[in-house]
């Protein structure tokens, strides 16, 4: 039985754009791969380079994510003791000059999100807002003003709810506030159902699957999440990632922030697109196979 809030009709499409390219996220679309690597978290050398004004590593990361098959690039410039708004804006200007992929602007600092939006020429995905009133009030007006889309996390204060019911309550709140109070289209709200490391607690993915299925069935909105979180601290992470993503896709995940440098994971996603009938006649799968065969000769 469908929920009373489920809406009939066409699947919602989250449309992102660079100056010259459009990407659509949707429950009837091929999975959207958001490259995660342009992020200095946990990378000491990259942080030191950025602090010294050396942006050369960014170009390498862009190239690697694009070659691996990224559709969108997540850009995070959270380096302690730097001017994050300035750094993020510079990074976005640089990245736009070397790739035509749309950008997902990743920061917890409102001023950095705004600086990134003002440097970006296109329709960005803003990453992220939570269900906290103060965060919603600070970030949603920016999303509306810059005509962007937004990733929203169903957590409030410092608590990450471990029950699907609570995540669904917060998702409903976010969608209500964004659409009714800020006039943001439901198609432009991308919920992060919260993916946690399996190494710490083997029940976490079950909660995530339930959250995904219910968000898809009750709200129909698009979803993304940090996929590499799930295998953190475990051995053979690539195999875990290659299993986790197709399972998430079957539960309704429509994109992920992930490391597109790993062929095993990217190929598992492309194969799942075929089985979910998101790749009509397997055309993209076959075309990729032919391109690979041609480049090998
Ligand atoms: N949801 C949303 N946005 C996100 C996340 C999420 N943005 C950031 C992060 N999580 C996703 N991006 C990355 C980028 C790099 C790495 C992981 C996630 C990474 N991790 C190293 C690893 O996995 O081994 C370790 C880095 C470290 O030591 O901290 O490189 O969940 N909306």
UniProtKB/TrEMBL annotation:
InterPro entries: Dihydropteroate_synth-like_sf, Met_Synthase/Corrinoid, Pterin-binding_dom. One of its GO terms (cellular component) is cytosol. It holds the Pfam family Pterin_bind. GO terms for molecular function: cobalamin binding; metal ion binding; methionine synthase activity. Keywords: Cobalamin, Cobalt, Metal-binding, Methyltransferase, Transferase. Residues 31-276 form the Pterin-binding domain. One of its GO terms (biological process) is methylation. NCBIfam families: PRK07535.1 (NF005719). Belongs to the vitamin-B12 dependent methionine synthase family. This is Methyltetrahydrofolate cobalamin methyltransferase. It comes from Mumia zhuanghuii.
